[in-house]
Write a structure and sequence with these properties.
The complex is a heterodimer of chains A (247) and B (157).
Chain A: H1 2-7, H2 11-43, H3 57-84, H4 87-118, H5 127-148, H6 152-166, H7 169-179, H8 199-231, H9 236-246
Chain B: H1 3-29, H2 31-34, H3 40-44, E1 54-60, E2 66-67, E3 73-79, E4 84-90, E5 102-109, E6 114-123, H4 131-140, H5 147-152
Parallel strand pairs in B: 4-6
Antiparallel strand pairs in B: 1-3, 1-5, 2-3, 3-4, 5-6
Classes of the chains: A mainly alpha (247), B alpha+beta (157).
């Protein structure tokens, strides 16, 4: 176990693993996501109250779910950066933050589109919506702070501390609908308890969530590889790789 | 684990615990401001200020909706199954507004205990179901209540 952990510290080793993983992540993700979306958007039954407008849930829930998961993964990587000083953990944080920001924006946007016809307003300052907006700003902050400090080591540590400070927001997002009165309804999509929707709506939703996880894994590998190549451009193995590519 | 790493890990854990306590205390102190709306019970108990813009939320009581045939004025009771508050509103209601549905109304409490709203939002619950299932549930409950009630009584609105 520890050997695997220490191998993770080697960018070269990770580069090779990512090459082998990426086709699986990409095809698995594309197939699952498309299956879930097509099933959900075209074939799942409509809701008795909202009609077809509820179908935005098949995009809203996966992106909101992933937006929070990605942040938790970044927080784990931040602990690794601070405690073990592993470069690859920082590479992950820098690679994942823009993807997380896009997912958070997507969740807020689809929520607003759904909220207008359903609630009667596209935005309200309730605890769920506000904490999600804070998550978006946290992602922006992580991206900006990482880009503002040019020294690799100080940038890694500063970003890791910011990510860790922000992680308290995650339980606030999750439990906001239970702790306070909000306009946003409690969770429909649950993994541990019986979901508040029938199977023929829940299964496509589950497929889209799983598919988006794999797609995120693919994006993360791709972006981490790019970041590794930039950082390790002076090493022998990267030069050899480029030469092999050119010839 | 290496002693230096152990020390760093402890510092990181302290950092996390400190932030969690700080944020926890702040949100606890601000809990009334974070709550989007007052429950009818809170309003009846006099916890909500009079003549200040507040939000009231709850279920629209069955059989309480009175529409004025001449105008857009509408009156209904908002309940949390303990107490209820009479709400007055003039304007277009959202599509999901119905008896037995959750709503959040923004407006003021008047001295005579009525809530004058200038905005009414529909609150959707977490239950999703196909129309056939909803009909079946309604038939099973004798058609007296809407299907949602059976699932979400007491669970919130």
């Amino acid at each position: 176990m520890w050997q695997f952990f220490h191998k993770l510290g080697s960018p070269k080793w990770f580069f090779g693993i990512a090459n082998r993983l990426m086709p699986w992540l990409m095809w698995g993700g594309v197939v699952l996501l498309f299956a879930g979306l097509i099933w959900g958007l075209a074939f799942a039954p409509k809701d008795y109250l909202q009609g077809n407008s509820y179908r935005i849930i098949f995009i809203h829930v996966p992106s909101a779910f992933l937006a929070q998961s990605v942040y938790i993964m970044m927080a784990v990587a931040a602990v690794v950066t601070l405690v073990w000083r592993m470069k690859l953990a920082d590479v992950f944080v820098k690679a994942a933050a823009p993807v997380g920001a896009v997912l958070t924006f997507l969740a807020l946007f689809t929520g607003a589109v759904w909220g207008k016809p359903t609630w009667g307003t596209w935005w309200i300052w309730d605890a769920r919506l506000t904490s999600m907006l804070i998550l978006l700003f946290l992602y922006f902050g992580v991206i900006a702070l990482g880009a503002a400090i040019s020294d690799e080591k100080s940038s890694a540590r500063a970003v890791a501390v910011l990510v860790l400070v922000g992680v308290v927001n995650i339980p606030i997002i999750k439990y906001s609908v239970e702790w306070w009165n909000t306009l946003h309804q409690p969770a429909t999509f649950k993994l541990t308890e019986k979901p508040a929707m029938p199977m023929e709506m829940w299964v496509p939703l589950l497929l889209s969530v799983l598919g988006l996880y794999l797609i995120f894994g693919w994006f993360a590998c791709l972006r981490m590889q790019t970041e590794i190549l930039v950082r390790e451009r002076r090493t022998r193995w990267v030069k050899a790789l480029v030469q092999a590519e050119e010839s | 684990m290496h002693p230096i790493r152990k020390k760093r890990l402890i510092i990181v854990l302290f950092l996390l615990a400190g932030i969690a306590v700080a944020v926890g205390l702040t949100t606890y102190a601000l809990r009334q401001n974070i709550n989007l709306f007052y429950d009818p019970s809170q309003i009846v108990a006099g916890e909500a200020p009079v003549d200040v813009r507040i939000r009231a939320g709850g279920m629209v009581e069955e059989g309480s909706v009175l529409r004025d045939p001449e105008s857009l004025k509408v009156e209904f009771k908002v309940t949390d199954f303990n107490s209820s508050v009479l709400v007055e509103y003039t304007g277009i209601l959202p599509d999901l507004f119905a008896e037995g549905q959750g709503v959040v109304a923004m407006g003021r409490m008047t001295d005579n205990g009525r809530f004058v709203a200038d905005q009414v939002l529909a609150k959707h619950d977490e239950n999703y179901m196909p129309p056939e299932v909803a009909e079946a549930l309604e038939r099973a409950s004798g058609g007296k209540h809407k299907a949602v009630d059976g699932n979400s009584t007491g669970a919130g609105y």
